[in-house]
Design goal:
Length: 300
């Protein structure tokens, strides 16, 4: 029931049918109130300078937009780099140092899936999860970080930072609950919109391919994978950040008679210890040089 509701909401936000459009229209007054409250919140905040370079990569809407591969690509360029994120889906709370130097200090249940991707993909980075980004920033700075990337922190208006926002296209332009937008691009707030195909390109590499693969994934808006998929026997979607049970996955393999499960890297970090046949749809991003120039010039 929970999974069905989540997918219904994703459809309502990004590809609504006529009935869902009617609901969205009826909820517009609540959206105007919500958006006004968020504007007042923005106006009440004064950015605090932490004395370190801080770059936030996010989007204005709920759901996935490709933040993780973009942060990975950007942070590869810099030395003494740290990544600070909330750590959605983790079975822990408070501040956790996930990785220092080459050492991964916890498992994926403690870090959350996105933090573990960073820990695997960026060998030289410090990775920290913390609901309170300020505490995470201070910890990263204490550990020697000279530049800090925040995953999804546009709404942290009390932190002085460079805001990069991934453009997300949606038929529904409303704020919550009428539409998917958590905030607007406030007129007096400086932020830069990054557009796929102009500022960055997604590149997909298929690793350990088998003859018969079943797609299993737990990412937001899984239909985003469709342009990159090879032929698969079936597609099984779980809610974003779902912590898999082995029985769920062996059931898919047995039902489909597949040779392997095709997963994204976000799924892979949760499944690699289960000793199951896995094929990997490994997504990375190639960034236009002007984005790095933007980051470098911001902190001159």
């Amino acid at each position: 029931m929970k999974k069905a509701f989540i997918f219904w909401v994703e459809e309502y936000f990004y590809n609504p049918n006529l009935f869902q459009k009617c609901i969205s229209f009826l909820l517009l007054p609540l959206s105007w109130i919500y958006c006004f409250v968020m504007y007042l919140r923005f106006q009440s905040k004064k950015p605090l300078d932490f004395g370190v370079k801080i770059v936030s990569v996010g989007n204005l809407s709920v759901g996935g937009s490709g933040k993780t591969p973009l942060v990975s690509a950007l942070s590869q360029r810099y030395e003494n780099v740290a990544i600070v994120l909330r750590g959605y889906g983790r079975k822990s709370s408070g501040l956790v140092v996930v990785k220092e130097g080459k050492n991964i200090l916890c498992d994926v249940s403690i870090s959350g899936d996105e933090a573990m991707i960073y820990a695997h993909k960026i060998p030289h980075a410090v990775v920290i999860v913390s609901e309170d980004r300020k505490i995470g920033i201070l910890q990263a700075k204490e550990m020697g970080a000279k530049i800090i990337f925040l995953d999804d922190a546009y709404s942290k208006h009390d932190i002085k930072k460079l805001d990069l926002l991934i453009e997300v296209k949606s038929e529904n332009k409303g704020c919550l609950p009428s539409g998917p937008f958590r905030e607007r691009l406030w007129r007096t707030k400086e932020a830069h919109i990054l557009t796929e195909g102009i500022d960055f390109e997604r590149v997909v590499e298929l690793k350990n391919q088998s003859a018969k693969m079943s797609l299993v994934t737990a990412i937001a808006r899984p239909s985003r994978l469709d342009p990159f998929l090879p032929f698969v026997v079936s597609k099984t979607y779980f809610e974003d950040h779902h912590m898999f049970q082995r029985e769920e996955l062996t059931g898919v393999l047995q039902k489909d008679g597949s040779d392997s499960l095709l997963v994204t890297y976000k799924d892979f970090v949760k499944l690699e210890a289960m000793n199951l046949p896995l094929s990997l749809l490994d997504l990375h991003v190639e960034v236009n040089e002007r984005v790095f120039t933007l980051i470098d010039r911001y902190y001159i």
